[in-house]
Amino acid sequence: TISFTLSDNAYVTLKVFDESSVLVKTLLDGELLAVGGNSITWDGTDGSSALVSDGLYSYTIDAVDDLGNAAVQQVGDVLLDTRKPLDLISPEDGATLAGTVTLVATQVDDYTIRSDNYAPYFTAIGTGCSRGIGRAAQQVDGTWTGINKYISTFAVSRSRG
Predict the structure, then answer these.
(1) pLDDT tens digit sequence for 49-94
(2) What is the CA radius of gyration of the chain?
(3) Where is the FlgD/Vpr Ig-like domain (predicted)?
(4) Residues with Cβ within 8 Å of residue 9, at least 6 apart in sequence
(5) What is the model's pTM?
């Protein structure tokens, strides 16, 4: 989504370019938009409606008011990344959830999943464990054993290379 603010009603042209500055798609072509915040969603396709490759694209925004006064061209970047960072296996889409829920997912190549766990207490767990929280321990093979109430936050990031 490309967001921008207009100080007055204006005819707006918004174009997306690839890394070689070749026009990929014109999202708006002199369309009248209202003063204030505007958001335009690019679906990741080119002018022929074919999906383009993931990557960093640039865009230009040109605006002209009713009197023909042109605003300074605005430019920016938009990252197209169509891959899912996780492939959720369970629970299935549309499942009604209650109580304790176990999420089962597989990690997509070149994404890193980092888990930060918080608990009101910490107890070191014996050998064979890579880390422990309270009475729960993550085994070397990545599985958890034990019981503990804790909060997990997960950060998913794409490796660049």
Answers:
(1) 999 999 999 999 999 999 999 999 999 999 998 876 677 777 887 8
(2) 24
(3) 2-64
(4) 32, 33, 34, 35, 65, 66
(5) 0.57
